[in-house]
Amino acid sequence: MIKSLFAVLCLLFSFIAGAQVVKVDLQASGLTCSMCSNAINKALLKLDFVDKVEPNIKNSSFDIRFKADAEVDFDKIRQKVEGAGFSVARFLVTMKFNGTRMLDDRCIFIGSTGLRFTNTREEMLLGERTFRVMDKGYVLPREWKKNPAASAGDCYQRIEQKETRVYHVILT
Fold first, then answer.
1. β-pairing verdict for 156-159 and 113-117
2. What is the rounded distance in angstroms from the CA atom of residue 164 to the CA atom of residue 39?
3. Domains, the chain, ranges and CATH?
4. Digit-coded pLDDT (tens) for 92-114
């Protein structure tokens, strides 16, 4: 029993160490001018794990890069955009994986973040891969309503006495 518990913990920690967020490509909705873009840019730069933000005014998007070995919190990024008076229309995450096994509709854990891949096949994730967060608040409301299966299920799981955030994602 103890050996199997130890094996499960080792496997879990290999998932944690097996990936790192490289960047987030966020598209905001509701922007009308460069001042709107500047408000989001300033808000995102206040996050302690953000290294730099490159806005693209033409596409209302932001390429967000992170500090080395920082734990990235997707909810805090979304909250900063909403706090600036806008909403997230698209949230693409690029992560560098080191052999993490992905199963359809099963969670993998990276740090304190869970990823539930939906509408995918079993696959080994190697190198940089991009996925889209499909939860409410990370896509436009009409898109979320069209695809409720992509964000079905719990958004939190209890792992070792802590609530762990689980994001519903699809590979792009």
1. unpaired
2. 30
3. 2-171 (3.30.70.100)
4. 999 999 888 887 777 888 877 88
